[in-house]
Specification:
Blueprint: H1 2-19, E1 26-30, E2 38-39, H2 41-48, E3 54-55, E4 58-59, E5 61-65, H3 69-79, H4 83-95, E6 103-105, H5 108-117, E7 121-126, E8 135-139
Parallel strand pairs: 2-8, 5-6, 5-7
Antiparallel strand pairs: 1-7, 1-8, 3-4
């Protein structure tokens, strides 16, 4: 019985390790109209907390995933908020009239498709996601 319990404990730990994303599992993508090829972590935070709306003079807008490993990894590494805390932040900004809700999409593929066709859009996807039609920004 002890062996069975150990097996399930190890299996559960393995599941958690494979389903939680790390920062290295996320890449930041931008529309080709975005003139920068790298972004500081502070500027990235500013874009996604909507306190920064331009980079090198060009307008930018955040694109957020609704959930999943890329979303969790991005929040943990860069935004330092839980998914619920970020939603609450966006709602408070909306109610205060400081900003509108960012575009929220359901998958890596939807983010890439939207970013590719939307001038100034910046989003994030899983590291293994296709980034065809968008540029990948290096985060410093």
């Amino acid at each position: 019985m002890k062996c069975v319990k150990s097996f399930f404990t190890l299996a559960a730990a393995g599941f958690l390790l494979t389903t939680s994303a790390r920062a290295g599992d996320v890449k930041v993508v931008a529309n080709n109209s975005v003139t920068v090829s790298s972004i500081s972590a502070d500027d990235l935070i500013g874009v996604f907390l909507m306190t920064k709306s331009s980079l090198s003079g060009g307008h930018v807008e955040p694109v957020v995933e609704q959930g999943g490993p890329a979303h969790e990894g991005f929040l943990k590494e860069y935004i330092h908020k839980t998914a619920q805390a970020l939603q609450n932040y966006y709602r408070s900004q909306l109610l205060a009239g400081n900003a509108s809700m960012p575009k929220i999409l359901g998958s890596d593929a939807e983010v890439v498709e939207y970013v590719a066709k939307t001038k100034g859009a910046i989003g994030y996807v899983g590291a293994s996601a296709s980034a065809e039609g968008v540029k990948i920004l290096e985060v410093k």
